[in-house]
Amino acid sequence: MKACLASSAIQPVLLQxxxxxxxxxxxxxxxxDGAIAAKGAQLAVPDHAMKLDARGYQLFPGLVDGHAHLDxxxxxxxxxxxxxxxxxxxxxxxxxxxxxxxxxxxxxQSERVTRRCIASGTSFIRTHVDIDNEIGLANxxxxxxxxxxxxxxxxxxxxxxxQSGILQNPGTAELLDQALYLGADLIGGxxxxxxxxxxxxxxxxxxxxxxxxxxxxxxxxxxxxxxxxFSLELLLSFTRRxxxxxxxTLSHGFCLGMVDAERQQQxxxxxxxxxxxxxxxxxxxxxxxxxxxxxxxxVALCAGNDGIRDTWNPYSSGDMVQRALxxxxxxxxxxxxxxxxxxxxxxxxxxxxxxxxxxxxxxxxRADVVLIPGRNMVExxxxxxxxxxxxxxxxxxxxxGECLF
Length: 405
Ligand SMILES: [Zn+2]
Description:
alpha/beta
């Protein structure tokens, strides 16, 4: 993802005595022309600069939601009474029925939920967008329009996602092809064994499309145990064969939490070697991938809100700080050093997965930052404070949980 630095018309901002979340001393940080221009113990205030006393705030780079479904959110609509059976195909069939009967507007819904994400400090989102032979490209067009309307406020990557399968849903492969022409950044996939019942054909279709369009790939893999491990082995071999190193993300990957320790290490080693990154939502009801192990092997790791208030579940506020806490609780991290991995996952890890250029808190990095009250990183997360200050390209765009635009 290319840096999009703002014009020089933006007023410089001097953040005084702010505490970078991964450093030990508060410092001054100067934001100019959409970038971090200087850092120091005490910087002179430039002419016309906005001065902000940031004592008591932790400075994070803009938060990254690496796995969302912005097109599905029902935020702002009548309350959806969830009475949906638990299995995947019933959930998907229910969602299709709801969509047919209620016709939610994907543009309106995705903009609503994205504004809420921005207000909590999210600066980068990878969203999967449903594509099937019933709605065609309507949801994609809605989300692309939202991306256009919110340009400069948030960076959105769009995955063309076959939520209803490809082989189970004739015509979807052609729609995915069109979606990539229309502006989707990645091709998605879904449970090639259990859902489409033909993993090789499913993977061949999506890898062919990725190569044809020069796009990256992000596949949902909910398959458990040995079945999931088999799909993952296929994913590794397809990545090798199609030379898609550093261009593939595995979403969910529950099976990695179900195989024995030796195989976990083998998978981690191969994923690191092939540059396959991972996304999790830290679900509480299923095994989860060995996060600390994958991190040790150098696999890029991100987290995401997944569905936010949709027909799948009523949870999530869109807040990545809340998601970091869910990660900590799911993995039973209590030590500050362990919780640092949750902070890394919603910041640098996500940025690595999305290949965001100039991401971070160094001089020259993009001035996409969020200030969160707290004496240290852990307190800033566990308090989940509302009074945050969100900057995009050096401009204050949200505070106290509200967008300023
Ligand atoms: Zn998902």
